[in-house]
Write a structure and sequence with these properties.
Oligomer: single chain
Strand content: 25-35%
Length: 655
């Protein structure tokens, strides 16, 4: 067993043994669905007639669940009602386990997750009971937090699932649903293997925290600083007072719990020191903290052993677009799984028909035993984007073409293998200019022909004002919205940013071509500094010459060492990013190899592909190796016969 089998109070085998009989009595058995009067349909993104929304409301209850060490965890549960009358029998329960505010008081009313998440109301209407638990050290729960996803929190997941299963309002079937942090706790819970956990539906959830925060060794300073301050204010009750429990009418118990949160360790101060993958610390009297503890992808063996079914829902513009798919890959073929990848960001665009249908199909099958055929579908569905996510001129347009069309399940692609076999690597080489498409530092070309010259190279002094745009997928990850159009998550058109950096642009496509999978860049570079960050953007250039962001990747040069990944990773380059593997840049050119975030997009006939290379993304990443523009490094990118820089794009012909 790996580290997540550990509990400071009771080992996993002992806990499991104490619940074996109850687990056996609660096992779901696939049953024939009831005969509903409407026509039945169960296919990807479409579901009707297998169950009915027979409930029209809900009632709220809140009580404390004691953990084995006596710490009280706040649990809020919602019982579906019909004409004001609660369901008269135990129901399967969907658990949301969160470190954010479960519910809070505002203008004399309690604001709950049910009001904020329409999808959860759909589950209630279809006969599921919803439970929302605050992890210890947050909301109205007692205790403190040493770090996110600590061993203590993972042990609590086991206890809270089994506590719910033992309540009279639960029929013994527990599922977990969550987005972002709550989706990640679902993966940790699967590793803990509570006997009554039947299925997980995990959305926008990364299993590898280090490779998000320190992607390629670069530090997402803005995300950690903003997110850390946000959760600090939540935990201390500074944003809003957490709603108290039913037994706490005065709020005194809630206030006592919040006071204990002052002992929490906040993420940003510690994360900015934890620069290497093998960094760890032990708090006196507490758990060891390390990236390994946080990363659920290192619990693959435990999750496979438990074989709790997992549905992965992710977005092409999400911050975990690649990472979450890696969890799917590593759980194959033992764990029953599905994966859906849409044209979505971390926090927008996925709350409608396809999403609702897939979640209901999943939970009906695994928690209610309804044989609706969900496991007979191909395991992966992905949306092949045909538009772009660039801010439109229309001021009232709040969704991209892809987001709108993704609600039509007929436009999705299904595959038994991910990435699809048809997507073959195609090398595009960085070459000299001029392409005549942008007034960048060099205006280079992107060609299918490997350079034959001996001395091709481009140099530029890093512009420390470079940025992916005024809004990014990383900002969306902590809930930020565009200042100029708050209701949207569109990205900026990138021509102005391209003019600050090195660019390489292809000739127009002679036919529609799809990029599906994970691009990999090979850059031969040198620098006047001993280290530096390199940012690469893949863009589609339309017929009018506008640059549309597709995806990005990044690498700190000193983290360029490559090694075999400790998990299956689609053959992508893996950087150990340990203190021992770190190496400064030498005087001679070196090759940097790293992947860009996954994508699936059609490059239309007549459009071009552009690769832009920058040395900073100051709104999202800490400036490195200097914050002083006068001392910015001059970097040289080589593109010759012996030092050929190129991008490998997984491409296939698109109809």
């Amino acid at each position: 067993m790996m580290h997540r089998a550990f509990s400071p109070w009771m080992t996993r085998p002992a806990r499991a043994a104490s619940l074996t009989v109850a687990a056996l009595l609660g096992l779901a058995v696939l049953a024939s669905p009831p005969a509903w009067p409407q026509e039945r349909v169960s296919a990807f993104g479409r579901y009707a007639g297998y169950t009915e929304p027979v409930y029209d409301g809900w009632s709220r209850h809140a009580e404390y669940a004691p953990m084995l060490d006596g710490v009280l965890v706040a649990v809020e549960y919602f019982v579906p009602t019909s004409a004001g009358v609660e369901a008269g029998e135990p129901l399967p329960v969907i658990l949301v386990y969160t470190r954010y505010l479960r519910s809070w008081e505002e203008s004399g009313r309690i604001q709950t997750l049910v009001e904020r998440e329409p999808f959860l109301r759909e589950l209630l209407a279809h006969g599921y009971l919803l439970a929302v638990a605050n992890s210890r050290g947050t909301g109205a729960s007692f205790g403190s937090r040493q770090w996110e996803f600590s061993l203590q929190e993972q042990a609590d997941l086991y206890e809270i699932v089994e506590w719910i299963a033992a309540q009279g309002w639960c029929d013994g079937q527990v599922g977990m649903w969550g987005r972002s942090y709550s989706g990640m706790t679902g993966l940790h819970a699967a590793a803990e293997a509570p006997p009554h956990l039947r299925a997980v539906f995990s959305e926008m959830a990364g299993p590898n925290v280090y490779d998000f925060i320190y992607q390629g060794g670069t530090y997402k300073h803005d995300f950690l600083k903003v997110w850390s301050d946000l959760v600090r204010r939540m935990d201390l009750g500074l944003l809003a007072p957490p709603a108290q429990m039913d037994s706490d009418s005065s709020g005194a118990q809630r206030d006592s719990a919040v006071a204990e949160h002052a002992d929490n360790l906040w993420p940003h101060p510690r994360a900015k020191r934890a620069k290497f993958r093998d960094w760890s610390r032990t708090r006196p009297g507490g758990d060891e903290w390390s990236w390994d503890v946080m990363n659920s992808i290192l619990s693959v063996d435990d999750i496979r052993e438990a074989a709790i079914p997992v549905y992965h829902l992710l977005g092409w513009y999400d911050q975990y677009a690649t990472q979450q798919a890696l969890m799917y890959e590593n759980l194959r073929p033992v764990v029953p799984q599905k994966m859906t990848i849409g044209p979505w960001t971390h926090s927008r665009g996925f709350g409608d028909d396809v999403h609702r249908a897939e979640a209901l199909r999943w939970f009906d099958y695994w928690l209610k035993g309804i044989d609706n055929g969900v496991m007979r579908d191909k395991p992966v569905h992905y949306y092949l984007m045909r538009g772009n996510h660039t801010l439109p001129e229309d001021p009232v347009q709040f969704e991209s073409r892809d987001e709108m069309e993704a609600e039509d399940s007929r436009l999705w692609k299904a595959t038994g293998k991910w990435p699809p076999k048809k997507a073959k690597g195609r090398n595009y080489y960085l070459a000299g200019g001029d392409s005549g498409t942008v007034a960048s530092v060099n205006d280079g070309r992107l060609t299918r022909t490997k350079p034959g010259n001996a001395g091709g190279a481009d140099s530029y002094r890093v512009d420390l004002s470079s940025v992916v745009g005024s809004y990014s997928r990383w900002m969306d990850g902590y809930g930020e919205r565009r200042a100029d159009r708050p209701g949207t998550t569109f990205f900026d058109e990138r021509t102005a940013e391209d003019e600050k950096v090195l660019t390489y642009t292809s000739e127009p496509m002679s036919s529609n071509q799809a990029i599906v999978g994970y691009p990999v860049v090979h850059l031969w570079v040198s620098s006047t500094k001993r280290d530096g960050d390199f940012f690469v953007y893949l863009e589609e250039i339309d017929a009018e010459g506008r640059a549309h962001y597709v995806t990005e990747g990044m690498l700190r040069a000193s983290h360029r060492a490559l090694a075999e990944a400790p998990w299956r990773n689609f053959g992508l380059p893996f950087h150990p990013s340990t203190r021992a593997s770190r190496a400064n840049l030498p005087a001679e050119p070196v090759e940097l190899v790293f992947d860009l975030m996954g994508t699936a997009i059609v490059i239309d006939r007549g459009h071009r592909i552009r690769i832009s290379v920058a040395g900073a993304d100051y709104l999202n990443h800490a400036r490195y190796p200097t914050r002083n523009p006068a001392k910015a490094p001059e970097i040289t990118l080589y593109r010759n016969a012996t030092q050929a820089s190129y991008v490998e794009l997984p491409m296939m012909r698109a109809r």
